[in-house]
Amino acid sequence: MKVAVIGANGQLGTDVVGEFVRNGDEVLGVTHMEMDVSSLESVRRTLAEEKPALIVNTAAMHHLEKCEQEPLTAYAVNALGARNLALTAHQLDAALIHVSTDYVFDGSKREPYVESDSPLPLNIYGNTKLAGEAFIRCTTPKHFILRTSALYGQSPCRAKGGLNFVELMLKLAAERNEIRVVNDEVVSPTSTTELARQIVLLSRTSGFGLFHATAEGSCSWFEFARKIFEIAGVMVNLLVAGPSEFPARVSRPKYSVLENRRLKMLGLNSFQSWENGLQSYMAFTHRAKPIMEKSGP
User: Fold this and answer.
1) Given 75, 103, 113, 125, which residue is catalytic?
2) pTM for the full model?
């Protein structure tokens, strides 16, 4: 199958390209330098000639503060960009896989959100991503919309200064003796490797629609950091940050855990627990401490 991956050099896009290649697909990796998703003309010009059977959109403007400062740009990329890809996919009779976010919810439910729950974004980023979902649903029937959460992966994330949360914690631990992390935001940390595998698995089906796609289980950012140091065997004084120690510049949900209900209903859920996903990631990057074998009976 010929697959076009939009945002191919990003944190998620890199893994998506690699996973489709490993599955024997012909992959066209498209970067921002080659195509502007906010321009319908650019999207059509880039994809019409290649005629992919599947378009995977991992591109987004997801820096929260920048989205608040430049709402029109955020809307152009996250909402109109999704519409432009949906229009082009429909014209080419291609399926579209679009990656969305847990930030379409306000966090007031306090238990895992399912696909049928009503979204209520708290910020510009969440609103523009929700608008992108709506554009796709009303533009092309052959679509998969995947909401995910708290991504981390091997490739750098430019919006986070090149460091995901795992690498940031390890960097800070090497620089200081004490680290303070918030404990009042609950997420499902998800490896881009696992999400990429789920995307490929879903692409082999015709079960179009909306899906939640995250690692199983949930934790606070403090609990996530604690597990990172435990797996890495790093000794550091980890403390819970005070309620006003790191004031958020942009409103965000305090609880954005997603339940992969539709994936499970279709027997397609491939995610493991967030703890096991983190262990796999750190073993791959050689950050996990060796597992000691028991000696003797």
Assistant:
1) 125
2) 0.91
- The tokens for 151 are 């991504």
Compute how many other C-beta atoms are within 10 angstroms of the C-beta atom of residue 246.
11
> 281 catalytic, yes or no?
no
Under CATH, to which class is 2-155+188-217+253-271 assigned? alpha beta
- Rounded Cα–Cα distance for residues 19 and 73 (Å): 30
CA distance 22 to 19: 5
DSSP secondary structure, 97-140, as one string = EEEEEGGGS-S-S-S-B-TTSPP--SSHHHHHHHHHHHHHHTT-
For 66-94, write each residue's pLDDT tens digit: 999 999 999 999 999 999 999 999 999 99
Of 95, 11, 1, nearest in space to 55 by CA: 95
Structure tokens at 240: 């819970």
Burial class (CB in 10 A: 0-12, 13-18, 19+), 175: exposed
